[in-house]
Design goal:
By secondary structure, this protein is α+β, with helices and mostly antiparallel strands. The chain has two domains: 146 residues; 116 residues, Hypothetical Protein Tm1070, Chain: A (Sandwich), CATH 2.60.290. The protein contains eight helices and 14 strands. Strands 2, 3, 5, 6, 9, 11 and 14 form a seven-stranded antiparallel beta sheet that branches. A five-stranded antiparallel beta sheet has the order 1-10-4-12-13, with no helix packed on it. The chain has a two-stranded antiparallel ribbon with strand order 7-8. The protein is rod-shaped, with a radius of gyration of 37 Å. The two termini are 28 Å apart.
Length: 301
């Protein structure tokens, strides 16, 4: 009568769509102000802007760091005083000292050469050293700028960890507003069965990673005073079950419900990780589906 199947994770911010329908775009600001939500939202946005501004800073942002690294790279790879040029000149001196140039005078000339001698090598090494040690685009400056970005991202007041905490606070606040955080029962509210020969289908999803339940689906007959569990023949519309993490169950009440009957569907044991869907349909190949209640239609009590 019921089976379990895996389901993909539903966006946790779906709860935002469960805010009471009386909240409209026109009065959202007043709603946020009254419920102390707006301040959380604005603070998170402000802190995200601060980190974004820091990363895009023209003086020590990522683009500036890239420019400075390129300047050092350009100096190191320079054809006139880069490492390749220095290596060529050292090789020339080494070649002279190895005997290709025989006289002492020739060796002295090689060492003192204005194009590849020791003085020229020293000049080029100094140029690279100046680039690496530059206070405006050297390694120390790059290290300072990377550290500034690291400090911003890890900041206890407006870093990523703080933003995560504040987003969670917003989620908790919305849960408290909608009642989902402490809900133990969800209801469809009263409705009237639209057609004769109707069957009820109910799907319940556990969006948590752990086993959930026990859950209890009850269908009430509202024509009775006081309301009572719906019973047709020997079938009592009352089922209890548990669900493994990230799974659902499908309940099918294959009994003819009468047109005009007043009923209510309740799910007990629910929290903000549990979703329910229900529909009523007629039997046969040309079945019609009606009295549909999506997860957002079920309200906490």
């Amino acid at each position: 009568m019921k089976s379990e199947k895996d389901n993909s994770f539903v966006d946790p911010m779906e709860q935002l769509r469960n805010i009471p329908t009386t909240i409209t775009k026109g009065n959202w600001d007043d709603f946020c102000r009254n419920k102390s939500v707006c301040c959380f939202e604005k603070r998170v946005l402000h802190e995200l802007d601060e980190i974004e501004d820091l990363l895009e800073s023209p003086t020590f942002g990522l683009a500036e760091i890239k420019t400075e690294v390129y300047a050092i790279e350009k100096a190191v790879l320079s054809p006139t005083f880069g490492l390749a040029e220095i290596k060529t000149e050292v090789y020339a001196i080494e070649h002279a000292l190895s005997g290709a140039v025989t006289g002492i005078g020739d060796i002295i000339i090689a060492i003192n050469s204005p194009t590849f001698g020791l003085a020229e090598i020293k000049t080029e090494v100094y140029a690279i050293e100046q680039a690496v040690n530059s206070p405006t685009f050297g390694l120390a400056d790059i290290k300072t700028e990377v550290y500034a970005i690291q400090q911003a991202v890890l900041s206890p007041t407006f870093g990523l960890a703080e933003i995560k905490t504040e987003v969670y606070a917003i989620q908790q606040k919305l849960d408290s507003i909608t009642g989902l955080s402490s809900a133990t029962m969800l209801t469809s509210g009263p409705f009237i069965v639209s057609k004769n020969s109707s069957n009820l289908s109910v799907s319940v999803l556990n969006n948590a990673n752990t086993v959930g339940g026990p859950y209890n689906v009850r269908v009430y007959n509202l024509d009775a005073i006081p309301k009572s569990l719906l019973q047709i023949g020997t079938l009592l519309f009352n089922v209890s079950f548990t669900l493994t993490g990230l799974s659902s169950t499908f309940l099918y009440f294959n009994k003819n419900m009468s047109k005009g009957s007043q009923v209510e569907i309740e799910l007990w044991g629910a929290d903000n990780t549990v979703k329910i869907y229900s529909e009523i349909s007629t039997s046969g190949e040309s079945a019609n589906v009606y009295n549909i209640f999506n997860a957002s239609d079920y309200k906490p009590v």
